[in-house]
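Escalated from tier 1: zinc ion holo job.
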Amino acid sequence: MDQLETYKQQVVAACQVLLERGYLMATGGNVSLRVPEQNRFAITPSNYDYSKMTAGDVCILDLDLNALAGERTPSIESSLHATVYEVRPDVNAVVHTHQVYASALALIDAPIPALFDEQARFLGRTVEIIPYAPSGTGFLKKNIAKRIRNHHNAYILQNHGVLCFGPSMEQAIHNVEILEKCSLAYLLALCTERKVSKIPLMVREIAFSKLRQDQKKVERSEEGDR
Ligand SMILES: [Zn+2]
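Tier 2 regenerated the structure:
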């Protein structure tokens, strides 16, 4: 049980950081962390104020969404997190937020092309828009499962918010921050109505191949653990 406690505490700590930095507001969004080797993950509870959350409020679920620990109802978006852990063995942490600038792009159906080196290195070739489906439904789960196979680490959910991944919670939070910076810069650039320049294709591909190398290392270490 001690080991699970560590994962729950990491989820709480992540929520505090995201709350302080303005990425989580009130009860919007949710955060989860994979428990390796056990097909389980720790996830924030449904509709619960992040500023009051303690490790005891965090739920432990298996990938079929059976509750294994925690007294509260798990996030209604738990199925979305489980899908990510099933489809992407390189992902150990998932952060879903309703952060404002990326959400604005979600409203105008504007995927983010490769604008910055750091973006291609950590988020992927582009930031795509995943088509709308209501929260907590099988439709949303299906849309996500289909889109995330391209191994990017950030996606915008149409008329909803964002989904960011990482091999660790620290990297997933960093990816949330990179995404918001790119979103703001892109929105401002679009407002000028001038041509938006992108990084050279070759630079984008080199950066993305480095990301894939990192991901494969994580995949191999997970296989080694089994
Ligand atoms: Zn949401």
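The chain has a mean pLDDT of 93.
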